[in-house]
Amino acid sequence: MEKNKSSKGLWKACYQMEISAALTLNEVLKVFEEPIEKLYECGIEVVTLKNSAQEGSNSTKIGGMFLKRCLTDLRAIWSLLQIGYTSQAGCVAAAAFENALIVEAISNNDERARLIMNNKSGDSPWSVVNLCKFHADQVKEESRLLEKEFSEQEYEIAWVQLYGAYKWLCKIKHPTMPSAIHDTGASTHHEGEYVIMAVPDIREEDTPNKYVILTIVINRIRSAIRNFAFGVQIDFEDDGVKSWLQRFNSIITDTLIANNKIHMELPFVVTDEKLRNRFENYLRK
Questions:
Q1: Residue pair 225/248 in contact by the 8 Å Cβ criterion
Q2: Quick one: 282 exposed, middle or buried, by C-beta within 10 A (0-12, 13-18, 19+)?
């Protein structure tokens, strides 16, 4: 903006820019529309399915509260991406990641539900690392029940990979130079200078960020819904449950198809060196 020029009217101009951005980004995000829609609706429907849950179970009551947050987060992320606010969607995605891990941790575990309910601070009693390890514990237990091998190395890789996705979102949420520099490109004009104002990011080079945010969120919320379904003990013989499962299970295939549309690398790298080194050490073992 030119020096001494008034910014009056630019707040209202945002609405027009966002409408214009949505026209472009609706097509860009279309490939994710079906899995997102299925995920949201399956999350609503899971509580209505025929089940044998105990009346008043703490794990499902509290799990349901956080599942509601997950679905609201999902809607907010989608809405932000549609109008071009990718980094802001990433911030909400980091919250959705934590909410989903809480659902996954407590929906089938009354003891953990009691811990979070009775924590005087009101905060989660577990770090995100703990929650990622709970997920790895579950994968290990499911492998045991299926009589599949699940080594200690696989266990470590499972939780470190999961935590790595969360750290990527946090590097967008927190003040980091690569993310901040990338964002200036949305309002850079032909002279190479950027304007300090809210501008939707419709650049093609930002598309991988949008896709990765959606992929991470879909995977985490889907896992949360899955655990909630186990927690309420859905009746797998019921026709309504079978129909729901068919739709729910198709989310994975839909997301893989959407991921295949990513033909570019992420526009910037925000890595946790300690975490990366730890992961590489596990792979070398």
A1: yes
A2: middle
